[in-house]
Amino acid sequence: MLAQLNTFALLGIDAVPVQVEVDTSPAQQPRTVLVGLPEAAVRESVHRIERALVNLGYRLPTGRTVINLAPADLRKDAGAFDLPIALGLLASMGQIAAEKLETYALVGELALDGMVRPVAGALSMAMEARSRGLSRLIVPAGNAREASVVREIEVYGVGSLAEAVGILTGVAPLDPFSPPVEDIEEKLNKYAIDFADVKGQEFAKRALVVAAAGAHNVLMLGSPGSGKTMLARRLPTILPPLTPDESLETTRIYSAIGKLPPGESLLCTRPFRSPHHSISGAGMVGGGSVPQPGEISLAHHGVLFLDELPEFNRNSLEALRQPLEEGRVTISRAAHSTTFPANFVLCAAMNPCPCGFMGDPKKPCKCAPMAVEKYMGRISGPLLDRIDLHIEVPPVPFEDLSKPSDGTNSAAMREQVFAARAVQAARFGDNAGGLNGRMTAKQIRTHCALDPDGQATLKDAMDALGLSARAHDRILRVARTIADLGGSDRITQDHVAEAIGFRALDRKLWER
After folding, report:
1. Which long-range contacts (CB under 8 A, 24 or more apart) does 378-382 make?
2. CB of 391 within 8 A of CB of 221?
3. CB 150 within 8 A of CB 127
4. Can you tell me the distance from the alpha carbon of 371 to that of 353, in angstroms, rounded to the nearest whole number?
5. CB-CB contact of 86 with 79 (8 Å)
6. Which of the residues 109, 151, 236, 380 has the least number of beta carbons within 10 Å of its own beta carbon?
7. Which of 296, 348, 293 has the alpha carbon at shortest distance from 322?
8. 14 forms bridges with which residues in the sheet?
């Protein structure tokens, strides 16, 4: 008897439909054959499934059984096929009614005692089930919360194979899982940290307001303990709230690699990723024999913080150049290519020299000029060009640290960001990007016209700093954001001068 079931394979962060076909026929010797390009984890599923069936009291096939995972040219990996194969075996032997499987999709990994373990990518699978017109999805109980975010389908969370059989046969029906909406609303866009915790550093806070308002990348340079990490960690608190679509898109990435926090159905705040400087290029941008998203995709719609920037591997940093321009990264392999979203704000921090105290008013620098030059040379000019704001974060004076009052808080900074974002939304409408930091060359010509004084100021800066054409456009983008923050329709000389001031490190530390 032939049984057919719907399930999914995970390719990157996308779910791909797979049909499980199980056919059992009489034979003198019992034999089970699994075909359809299965990897080791899937080939081993036969042994897991057989023991699970026996331990739950079900009969095993006594003849020849062929299990086909279609399409045949798609490589199948991971243990999510255990549950549909097990139910297919039961249906092929007539132990459950096969016709009830047509409207269901099923995923889940089986333990030897028949319990169902969580799998990666349940959210993507639920989204694909919706697009395929399937009305019901059976997932492990540990994945029910995230899969139930897709409202158009009924999601059933099962803890064991027996529960899945009960749903399909109607012997022990379960109600679809409904996540408590109050939990999501309570956590949505709520942060435990605030810019008020950072004493002083008002210039750096102003730069971060500009960065958040226009989605500009920022580099902070200062001696150890000056507050660079504190500032960076609070940058998400002044970004606009996550929209439902942004939350769903970002959550899908975390779900696909099994990094969604336990008990969470959606990411409620913008992600903040801070990888260690020993990270590899594949860990940064994604990769592997089966392509997986990297840190830049985990920071999608959020902030990627690179502390001690010169200590990162050169290849890892250079791999950021394309994603910073395009907002996505494509991983190509012989069989296929996978594209991951990577639309993030880059926030980097570094010391001014190897010892960290060059320019510090209290501690002398012990580094030789050649050591400083070598240290700074670890960051290439092309990468630096893609960072819009370069700001110095000096040590905080005792007077500022001892003030009883808090500094500028996130709420005040967020109001400025929201106002500037509203101007940009009206300006760009439904255009891709929709933010000053992502303007195309054509949009720059349209929206960043300068008066004669502004042009003269920019020309002088280009000649003095030796800036590239890309840096020229970056300055115009930042100037446009500064004008939006000030409520000005035109970019004035003051706006251009402030934007140039945010690139002072070009002159002081790097030779062009």
Report:
1. 378/310, 378/311, 378/314, 379/309, 379/310, 379/317, 379/350, 379/510, 380/314, 380/317, 380/318, 381/468, 381/510, 381/512, 382/318, 382/321
2. yes
3. yes
4. 8
5. no
6. 151
7. 296
8. 11
Q: What is the DSSP string of 230-285?
A: HHHHTGGGGSPPPPHHHHHHHHHHHHHTT-SPTT-SS--S--EE---TT--HHHHH
Report pTM.
0.90
Contact criterion met (CB below 8 Å) for 30 and 60: yes
Phi-psi region of 142 (alpha: psi -120 to 50; beta: other; left: phi over 0): alpha
Spatial distance between the Cα atoms of 262 and 289, rounded to a whole number of angstroms: 27
Helices and strands (H and E) in the chain: how many: 23, 18
* Token duo for residue 393: 């974060």
C-alpha to C-alpha distances, 128 to 56, 121, 245, nearest whole angstrom: 31, 11, 16
- Summarised one tens digit per residue, pLDDT across range 172-231 is 888 899 876 656 656 677 888 999 988 888 999 999 999 999 999 999 999 998 899 999
pLDDT score recorded for residue 61: 87
List of the chain residues with pLDDT < 50: 509-512
d(CA 456, CA 94): 83
Q: Quick one: tokens of 237?
A: 């608190």
What is the rounded distance in angstroms from the CA atom of residue 208 to the CA atom of residue 144?
Answer: 38
Across 260-287, b (16+ Cβ under 10 Å) vs e yields beeebbbbbbbbbbbbeeebebebbbbb
Rounded CA-CA distance 35/66 in Å is: 8
- H or E stretch covering 11: strand 2-11
How far is 221 from 203, CA to CA, in rounded Å? Answer: 13
Rounded to whole angstroms, how far apart are CA atoms 137 and 224?
A: 52
